[in-house]
């Protein structure tokens, strides 16, 4: 579809689009990247030399999830701390058994609840605290926490297991909260840039998951010491956090980034019932300085992104319903052979590694293909179609089976294929919906919309993980 002149604008009640071949309906259905990019007429648009900005956002995306993934990847270390070191020396098996048995549940609660609260706080801070303050502060806090965790690896915590558990949970709360502010702030910042930069940040997050899965495989293959593995995980996370700080400070030095990071002023957003000024249809809808609000208008953002938000919530709901609760309990049909492939490496390879790389591929495809558009009915149709994956996983070799005795797929190839479909569709569809959000609102609301869009995945994850326990009891 041909794209008209960048200086030609079409103003809706709360968004700005470029006309394409005189067809408003066509722009609503497909809206390619050039059509969605916020661009100021009259200013020359610089080139992203050597894809420097793209690579920086990709790396920041890795940094947004890699530390948290490494934190939970050190599963054997936490088991050692809460079981081995305590039970071997202090004999408090009964007292501390609940810590070990429900540790992952504690982690989920300690990460999800603060994340939701911090997203709300970050939305309120959009016009109060500059983005660089929020980003650098959150990175510094995460780096400090990981340095503390590195120091505690070699400390004998057998005499204060409960205290160490408290320190760990507090660390999870701090890391999760800081990571949420960091990632939502960066994603909000990418709202000012062309969509490929938002896609880079989201794909970087998938790369963080893939790297953690590779690290887990390497650790299973070569590691001999649980504590040394934990030091390696935490140290790599700390190094990458420091790298993210350096890359973020480098970002405004790039001419391409400076062009899109120019200040945007708060605007008044007209609802559907209000009429636009007739005397100056092309002028920006700015409020007088005395009427500007420090809090971005939430209602028009929610109204404009409601459809995309529902798609994101449902995508993450289905994915978290299956992964990891259901998929990690699917065993190899040849497990009785005792080979490392069917026992030790089956779940890490066919679930974690395969899913994360399929997710990464799905997200990366959106760099070249962006269909269907944000207004297309095909997008929610594809999102609902993913529901079929739930019974497909349930009919694989899930163990133990209590109620659902039928096992339809009698091969290890099937769960691998279904995992690829789950990850690929999750990555592609969720990335499309996420990068569209900041592009269907005025530029002045792009950052706040990015923060709001970050809420939808967490809501979907919370809903899916809570329902996954019910689904497990039905199998």
Automatic annotation (TrEMBL):
GO terms for cellular component: Golgi apparatus; plasma membrane. Pfam families: Nucleoside_tran. This is Equilibrative nucleoside transporter 3 isoform X1. One of its GO terms (molecular function) is nucleoside transmembrane transporter activity. PANTHER family: EQUILIBRATIVE NUCLEOSIDE TRANSPORTER, EQUILIBRATIVE NUCLEOSIDE TRANSPORTER 3. The keyword Transport applies. Belongs to the SLC29A/ENT transporter (TC 2.A.57) family. The chain crosses the membrane at residues 54-72, 106-126, 133-152, 164-193, 200-218, 230-251, 306-326, 338-357, 378-395, 415-436, 448-471. The gene is Slc29a3. It is found in: Membrane. It is a multi-pass membrane protein. Residues 274-294 are annotated as: Disordered.
């Amino acid at each position: 579809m041909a794209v008209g002149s960048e200086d030609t604008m079409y103003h809706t009640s709360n968004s700005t689009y470029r006309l394409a071949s005189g067809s408003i309906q066509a722009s609503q259905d497909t809206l390619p990247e050039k059509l969605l990019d916020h661009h100021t007429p009259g200013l020359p648009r610089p080139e992203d030399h050597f894809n420097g900005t793209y690579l920086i956002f990709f790396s920041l995306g890795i940094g947004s999830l890699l530390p948290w993934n490494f934190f939970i990847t050190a599963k054997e270390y936490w088991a050692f701390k809460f079981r081995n070191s305590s039970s071997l020396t202090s004999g408090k098996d009964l007292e501390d058994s609940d810590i070990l048995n429900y540790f992952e549940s504690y982690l989920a609660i300690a990460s999800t609840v603060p994340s939701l609260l911090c997203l709300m706080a970050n939305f309120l801070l959009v016009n109060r605290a500059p983005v660089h303050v929020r980003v650098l502060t959150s990175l510094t806090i995460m780096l400090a926490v990981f340095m503390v965790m590195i120091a505690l690896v070699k400390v004998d915590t057998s005499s204060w297991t409960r205290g160490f558990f408290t320190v760990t949970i507090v660390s999870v709360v701090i890391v999760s909260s800081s990571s949420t502010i960091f990632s939502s702030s960066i994603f909000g910042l990418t709202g000012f840039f062309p969509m490929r930069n938002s896609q880079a940040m989201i794909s970087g997050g998938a790369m963080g998951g893939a790297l953690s899965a590779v690290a887990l495989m390497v650790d299973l293959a070569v590691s001999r010491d649980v504590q040394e593995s934990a030091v390696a995980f935490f140290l790599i996370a700390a190094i990458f956090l420091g790298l993210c700080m350096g890359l973020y400070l480098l970002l405004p030095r790039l001419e391409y980034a400076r062009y899109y990071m120019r200040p945007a002023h708060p605007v008044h957003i007209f609802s559907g019932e209000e009429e636009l000024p007739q005397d100056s249809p092309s002028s920006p809808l700015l409020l007088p300085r005395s009427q500007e609000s420090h809090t971005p208008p939430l209602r028009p953002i929610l109204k404009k992104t409601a459809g995309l938000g529902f798609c994101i919530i449902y995508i993450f709901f289905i994915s978290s319903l299956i992964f990891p609760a259901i998929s990690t309990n699917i065993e190899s049909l040849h497990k009785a052979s005792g080979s490392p492939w069917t026992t030790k490496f089956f779940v890490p390879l066919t679930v974690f590694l395969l899913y994360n790389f399929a997710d990464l591929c799905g997200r990366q495809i959106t760099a070249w293909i962006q269909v269907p558009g944000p207004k297309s009915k095909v997008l929610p149709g594809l999102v609902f179609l993913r529901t079929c994956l739930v019974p497909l996983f349930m009919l694989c070799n899930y163990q133990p089976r209590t109620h659902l005795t039928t096992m339809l797929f009698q091969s290890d190839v099937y769960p691998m294929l279904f995992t690829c479909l789950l990850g690929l569709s999750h990555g592609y569809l969720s990335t499309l919906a996420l990068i569209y959000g900041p592009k269907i609102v005025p530029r002045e609301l792009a950052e706040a919309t990015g923060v709001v869009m970050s809420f939808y995945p967490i809501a979907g994850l919370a809903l899916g993980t809570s329902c996954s326990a019910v689904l497990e009891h039905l199998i």
